[in-house]
Write a structure and sequence with these properties.
alpha+beta; 6-stranded mixed beta barrel; disordered N terminus
């Protein structure tokens, strides 16, 4: 990371953050993560009786790259709409703040046949009409990186 004139750390463009239509809602702060083996959604987005009743109880332990782990509350099948392409995806439901509302992993990317490019901040996928593109929302990605950096400031590392 680089610093700006005020000493604030500037993020690299290594994350693609988009908005995604799930059910009839536009969800912001959606991380596209080709390194994730599953799709993840926050419990708070589903806190309505009609949706919570649709959650299939299943406890799984999800472990991240930093070996931090979270236990899921279950999984849910939800329709997603991206650039007019409707796909149903299975999401693992987690409780607590993970920074993003949704993480789209390899299952969604493969189902959509998406080619992500973090360098270009772009997702591309083929449709009958031609190639569709979804541009990453760089201000949202920067905002999330600044939040991460500021929450890590002041934390001491043990030697």
């Amino acid at each position: 990371m680089e610093e700006d004139a005020d000493g604030l750390l500037l993020p690299h463009n290594d994350a693609i953050v988009i908005s995604l239509n799930v059910l009839d809602f536009k969800i912001k702060r959606v991380l596209v993560d080709p390194g994730s083996s599953t799709n993840i959604i926050q419990w708070i987005l589903l806190e309505q009786p009609k949706l919570t009743e649709s959650i299939i109880p299943a406890t799984k332990l999800l472990v991240g790259f930093n070996l931090a782990s979270v236990t899921t509350r279950g999984e849910i099948l939800l329709p997603t709409n991206t650039e007019g392409v409707m796909k149903t995806a299975i999401f693992e439901v987690v409780n607590g703040d993970m920074g993003y509302n949704i993480i789209l992993g390899r299952p969604w990317l493969h189902e959509m046949k998406v080619v992500p490019s973090t360098y270009h901040q772009l997702l591309k996928f083929l449709m009958l009409e031609g190639i569709k593109k979804i541009k990453g929302e760089q201000p949202a990605a920067r905002e999330m990186n600044v939040i991460k950096v500021s929450s890590n400031k002041g934390k001491e590392h043990a030697a």
